[in-house]
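Our preliminary data section would be incomplete without showing what the modeling component actually yields. Below, a chain of 79 amino acids is followed by its predicted structure, encoded as tokens that our downstream tools consume directly.
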Amino acid sequence: MAQKNTPGKEIKEEQAFVFDKSNYTLMIISILVVVAGFALMSGETDIYSSLKIVIAPLVVLAGFGIGFYAILKKPAAHK
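Predicted structure:
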């Protein structure tokens, strides 16, 4: 016979998070790197400088790469 769930007898199951603390740390770092890249891109003077058209987009792409790694990284196995 199937077990009925009554309001008084709830079975508590331990919920496991999808991401670990290291994943969240990497996500915060990736957000900061992307913001830094956009900050390097901003400004009104000398729009054709190598900082704005080469280095800043690479910094933004590196931030997105860190974000993808943070999402795909498997959390460490806990004993």
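The CA atoms of residues 4 and 55 lie 61 Å apart. Helices lie at 21-41, 50-72. Preliminary results of this kind motivate Aim 1 of the renewal.
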